Amino acid sequence: MTKSAIDELKASYISREQQARARHARGEKVIGYFSWNVPEELILAAGMFPVQLSGSPDETTELGDQYMEDFFDGYIRSIFNRMLTGHFNFVDLIVIPRTTESYLQLYYFLQEIERLKPEHEFPELYLFDLLQTNNWLTGRYVRGRMDDFKQKLEQVSGKLIEQAAVTNAIKTVNRNRALLSQVNAFRREIPPKLSGSDLMRVTGASTFIEKSTHSQRLENLLDHADQLKPLSGPRLMVKGSPLDNTALYELIEACGAVIVADDHAWSERVFEHQVREDFDAMEALTEHYHLHSPSPRQFPQARQDEIFMNIVEQAKVEGVIFYIEEYDDTLGWDYPGQKKMLDAKGIPSLYLKKQSYRQPDEVTQKVAVTAFISSLKQ
Amino acid sequence: MDSNAKPVKNDSKQSSKALPPLTGQRLAVTEGLKKHQKEWFLGFRKRVLEEGEAYVIAEPSTPHEIFHAMDVEVVATPWYSAMIAAKQLSPYYFELSESLGYHDHLPRYMSLPLMSSIDNNPERAPYGGLPEPALIMDRLRGEFPQRIGEQWAKCYENTRYFPIDNPGQSRMKPRWWEESRYNWENFYEPHRLDFVVDQYKELIREAEFATGKVFNHAVFVEQMHLINQLADLVDEAKQIIAKARPSPIPLTEQLGNIMGVTWHRGSQWSVDHLKAYVAEIRDLADRGVAACPNEKVRLLWLNNGLWFNTAFYRAFEEKYGAVFVWSMYTNYLSDGYFRHFTDDPLRALASRHITSNDQLHLPPCMADWIIQQAGDFGAHGAVMLVPREDRMSGWGTKLCAMAVEAAGIPVLQLEASAVDARTWDNDKMTKMVEDFIENRVLK
């Protein structure tokens, strides 16, 4: 039974857009979005189907390459290429959050393509201008953007979003986050009973299929947890650039380690915080996405470093692998300080920098990871 | 494009026309600028180091005007970065950066001054290094500025980091350089302006606490009017240079004078200096004085400047008569700064800085403006710097080049850093520009 629940979730992770495409084919409204910084609660409250969109490292990007510099983040180039090829044309609106400069640039690039190359057709775009400096004033700005997003969704759906619907949607997504936290606890056990690769698939699937179905499958998994087998190997954490696929995790775990914790755009950080249910729903969503939705714009860095080190400690991490994408201009500023913090705790780390999204050098990765794991075992 | 804009081949009779060269290759006003900058820095050090006055380090697209209205000195990060590069110190600081564990794809332009502060060696740093500022002020475009700013503030004991958050524009619209002068309220979107004005009010309060000085509203209003005067003067200078054949002054002279004024915008000195600048170039143009008497080809320099090698701008004059006549720095002070206002100067200020980098670097804004400038200056081609590590300056260059080419202006893209001299291969770059002139511009 447990295996079946995990297998179903894995299948949903792999066939990411299947449900959304089927809904679109049935005439339902589908809202696509990028990253975990878009309030899917509002999309659910509007009675539409939310689906997280992503790139794919398995696809070439010839069309995108004509217009976009090669020093863009790999996942953004892939998304851009998919936009131009009409891959996402099954959605009614695409929401792009302003939680990385790359996403904002993607938004402007697509506007320019609309102007210069109108032959490339893609869905209507909406910029969700989420800012995250940690002060009251920014929070008020975010509230304004949250209201604007709600209005946009009302316009697309043709229906007003009721307060009760938002409250219910918050409960639905919170329940899902809580269940994901419970499943993540299997990674924390000694020995761990769930691999990092599986947790990533289980987590990702929550944004590809209907939320209540996903939650039911998580409950099913929890009900049959006794069937999970203990895993052996050094307990590692992966931190760094966004990983929208499991290739690196699979490589690391095939080398004999278990990823028991992570901190990146598709990691356990996405379900660590619940939206408050005890006050006004729109204010609660504002507070959550402004202050607690993980992104590289979260500020100040000391708070983010504290969260990172808390995870290291709580998960009893034995080593950290920093994964930094090829043209990173941001996380490399954090690395020296974070390495120092780990050194002070006697926790070894491996720095995989300048990593290609589409064509990672798996041989070199494997050599480095194997050597790192061996050093931990000694 | 200007129908008279055809490049002149080497065998043209026009090349034999005798024109007086610019004597000494430097304007009289440039000497005045150098003297002013030296005096300013001496005064700055006296006020800050000897008398203990507070000063501020600020990113370029932040409201320096607020501090000018408080009589608080401001050091602009790109100015200091350019100083480091010009003194050939960038290799040392970049090697320091890498030895500290920062990987070598990280942004170059804005991190050099941070490295000079980490190094903390007054003997090495330009002008003896930057003393402890009261505030480091930034505008958050990408995700790295907040990291540089926080780490930089930690180099000092009592420095506060003040980031101004940067709301995204919902829609990039055409012809910003026209719309922004009078229609800025609608053009830059009221909800964004509301937020930025509120942040500026917080900044003023914070700055008053940090510096012990009070924001003088009357001085601020006066400075805003003076900046509008500056914008008109820069436009006047642009019209003279754009229409003159040949160009009376080289790009290097334009850059020095306009950027020097940009960092001291709003002062009476800045207006007086630009009046003298306009008068001098008008006189030169009237007398037919030429930066390059052999001028045959007019080029635009697109994107960031090449601060460690400004001689490169003039390297093609003798062989091809190819003269760089424009870069984004030469008239952004006119097109990007002018703001008509009546009752809310702080809101006008917010509209000036809210999208300034985007206008210079994002495809729709950047390309349209460049095409307009190419027409105004009768340019035959454009050389575009593409800095890979400073991605926010590099992004969009491909789409921009495509749009400029589609407007009939050949573009050469040179991948290089604006400040990292280690990565510059002068022979290779020279050859690329020569090939471009021969095969794309003169053909």
What name does CATH use for the topology of the largest domain in chain B?
Rossmann fold
Strand order of the largest sheet of chain B: 2-1-3-4
Beta fraction of the residues of chain A? Answer: 5-15%
Distance between the termini of chain B: 17 Å
**Radius of gyration of chain A, rounded?**
20 Å
| SSE class of chain A | alpha/beta
Structural summary, described in words:
The complex is a heterodimer of chains A (378) and B (443). By secondary structure, chain A is α/β, with parallel strands linked by helices. Chain A contains 15 helices and 8 strands. Chain A has a 4-stranded parallel sheet with strand order 2-1-3-4, sandwiched between helices. A 4-stranded parallel sheet of chain A has the order 6-5-7-8, with helices on both faces. The longest helix of chain A has 26 residues, at 163-188. Chain A starts with a helix and ends with a helix. In chain A, 53% of the residues are buried. Chain B contains 20 helices and 8 strands. In chain B, 52% of the residues lie in helices and 10% in strands. In chain B, α1 runs antiparallel to α12, α11 (251-263) packs antiparallel against α12 (268-286) and α11 crosses α14 (328-335). With 443 residues, chain B is an alpha/beta fold. In chain B, β1 (55-58), α2 (64-68) and β2 (73-76) form a beta-alpha-beta unit. In chain B, the strands form 2 sheets. In chain B, strands 2-1-3-4 form a 4-stranded parallel sheet, sandwiched between helices. Chain B has 2 domains: 54-165 and 196-215, Rossmann fold (3-Layer(aba) Sandwich), CATH 3.40.50; 219-441, Rossmann fold (3-Layer(aba) Sandwich). The interface between A and B is large, with 50 and 48 residues.
